[in-house]
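Note to self: user wants both folds in one dump. Writing first protein now.
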Amino acid sequence: MKNYILIAFFTLITFTNCSIDGNETSEVITKTYWHLRNVSGGIAGVDNNFNLDEIIWSFNELTGNLTVTNNNTDDTVEDALESGNYSFSVTTDNTNKYLIINDNEYGGLLFSETELIIDQNITSSGSGADGFIYTFQRVLVIED
């Protein structure tokens, strides 16, 4: 009789996908990282491409903190911000959004599902012609 109870118990656990120790599976957390892929524009008309993982921006909307990891070693190439932590916010004017970094307007924001563009020619005070355009690729990372 004891064998039937044990068989029934393990069958129940198997079919209900429960664990014996009671640990539930944890929620999957994804984090978005923006990888700088291209910088274009400026007075000299630059067009610089970067490898994935070379320059990474991570926005924490809860704290208003932007973390930049910049592994570019060529100081002659425009690559936006140096590695470090920056305060950021986003302001909206009608339908346009603008990125503010360390209390300075950095440029207009354009989003898609996989791309972020910061256009320094689009400002809340009008448009310009000599700013840089930073194009980022979105990378999602699953964290434990």
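First done. Writing the second protein, which came from a different request thread.
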Amino acid sequence: MAPRTLSSPSRDLNTITEVEKSLIFPSFTADTAWEIGNELRDRLLNFPDPVVINITLANNNQLLFHTVTRSGTQPDNDSWVARKRATVLRWGCSTWFMHNKFSGGDEAAFAAKYMLGESAGQYAIHGGGFPVRVKGVEGVVGVIVVSGLKQDQDHQVIVETIQAYNRGLMPIAIEDSDVDSE
């Protein structure tokens, strides 16, 4: 099975920020998480590598969706999920943003900047953790994490899936000529 291609995500912090700001959900419920999780899984089945998909709420870490795409994931994948989620929740942005903020993932600079000391291992600045934002709600309401591909792919599959999902949610404009008038 040939893997599906993904576009390459930008490494420019302003562009990453603009992409994140554009991916706002009109609402986010357990049903939304189920739909996004399944869309991610369907897309990721086209890749040969096993991947973990995890979606949680931010306020209580309630698990809304968790699955793997195929056999072969390791316990380390779940550790990566937890670390990526912790980064998104603490800094309110994607782990891809944090990766690029620190010269392509300089973990020593990251740990020093935020004086993390021994707690640095609780966070990951590798792509694949993405904030869920909802229109009219301040802050991050959930986190979507993908772990198992290259980090730029982990990030980009989330971006492209949310973009496609949000396009599908937009109501179809009805032209005046399509409406019968009485």
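Dump finished. Worth passing along: The helical segments are 13-22, 30-44, 75-91, 95-101, 107-113, 151-169.
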